[in-house]
Queue: 2 jobs
Job 1
Amino acid sequence: MKAKVLVARATFPDVIERLQQQFEVESNQEDKIFSPAELLQKMQGKDAVVITASEKMSADVIVANPQLKAICNVAVGYNNIDVAAATAAGVMVTNTPDVLNETTADYAWTLLMANARRVCESEHWLRAGNWKHWRFDSFLGADIHGATLGILGMGRIGQAIARRSTGFDMNVIYHNRSRATPEQEAYANNARYVSKEELLRSADHLILVLPYSPQTHHIIGAAELALMKPTATLVNIARGGIVDDVALIAALRENRIASAGLDVFENEPALHPDFLTLSNVVLTPHIGSGSEKTRRAMADCASANLAAAMSGQQPPNLLNPEVKAKK
Ligand code: GLV
Ligand code: GLV
């Protein structure tokens, strides 16, 4: 008998077609956003669920379906899943690491450069017919080249971001829970490990690459923003909630930092409305890994994890190897 699989969000049609050859698939190609109650109901009787970062797998959702064997997240970050509850319930949890590192690193640079050189702000101004008011000192930004790049979170994506700075002749500093190896530091444009305080004080531009957890909740708040340079750009391509959005809005409004590039927010897809009133912020809807090639690689990676889990093998990206999987 084929395993029953719920694919909770729309994906590439050929991915669904391939899954249908192996599984009994309930897809959601119209991409209806399920309420928690609808998701619970859809999951009834399924052996596995394929989700994105927008679906929450809390303990009550996980235990409500005793047949559930696997949760396959099509994302690297998995703070949307109660992994401990899944482990206790005998449910395997997988994610899609590595395939998105380079694309996400590209996007961190996209937001950094768009902010430092005020691309979006000046483009809106041009569209509004203001070019005739151009002045020699219009939209003066901050240089990227030769600047000090700060990275908070030196995992694989952090290293990929740092490595890109070689062509800009930058000095790279970082802070991380544990220090990177000398080889990783060398790869990351000879990044230098510093305290969090020195990182905040010395970075001309700061990129956040931390997973969200209770330990990283509001790791950038009012006190941290106060240490940053008034000319600095802050970029968050990691997760909402690692930044205190209210504190950031205040800092941007009072020009205590120059600008922010944000792809993630607290309470996504809701956004603090005050962000929309600020011109020194670039706001995008969680598209950091969103190249065609990488989104396909993520879907393939999740499919491979699903196939392994359903055939009784260890999935390549199992997050809870201690789980005693159900037969
Ligand atoms: C996207 O945010 C991811 O975690 O892959
Ligand atoms: C995140 O920084 C990762 O480990 O990929």
Job 2
Amino acid sequence: NGLLAGKNMLVMGVANDRSIAWAIAQSLAAQGARLAFTYESERVEERVRKLADTIPGSILLPCNVTADEEIEGLAAQIRESFGVLHGLVHSIAFAKTEELEGMFVDTSRAGFALAHDISAYSLTAVAQRLYPLMTEGGSIMTMTYLGAERALRNYNVMGVAKAALEASVRYLAADLGPHGIRVNAVSAGPIRTLAAKGIKDFNAILRQVEEKSPLRRTTDASEVGDTAMFLLSPLSRGITGEVIYCDNGYHIVG
Ligand code: 0WD
């Protein structure tokens, strides 16, 4: 039952119950998808396991996206458990906190490389190993932010990494389209999560969205969950290489 009945989907990036990936998982499960979750390290394993256990039939696998062999191991496990994969959710980003304040011009070589490795390259690294499992066609989605196209205060190197991520979405969509695989991004408004804690003056950003966005409210993770579900469902079959905003309209004003 549901739009995603009989579909196998992998969700990467759940750290806790506030994670956007967790909201996406709820929306996918509500439409009948069978889910696999990955966790970054033992540090979060137990927390993610408790969450995954609340979704019957789901499985849990380790994968730190900075290690090629972990991604290869993940692909092998997914092949074994699911055979065919239909959907992939990439909801992963990281930058050092010291790079998320002050001036972008002060970004270090190592900080730049790390932010791009985890937040941008990882999408290609996982798509590369998982698209061969999408033998019935598929949909890949990732999470981005307005800082990719505007120089937003404190977002700094993460904005540059998100720009690379959005460009990667277009190149991956061009490559994988002939295989019946779509690739898109959701650009979400700011949401209070673990990752958001790293961004300086996050409260001020939320306040501004509440005042200025056309719908006069901040983004709820469940709204992003449903937009992601749409992108992973056949309802969006004509959409690929796209960045869809789920931000209560904030990006069209001021
Ligand atoms: O306002 C926001 N929260 C927005 C977030 C607005 C627009 C976009 N996004 C994006 C983020 O940039 C990210 O790409 O959404 C995605 C998910 O972020 P989130 O849900 O806000 O944050 P969080 O719950 O922290 O999930 C990100 C997770 C990591 O969490 P922590 O906080 O432990 O770093 O990404 C995962 C990890 O679970 N992650 C990794 N996974 C595998 N390998 C790695 C890694 N090396 N590094 C981080």
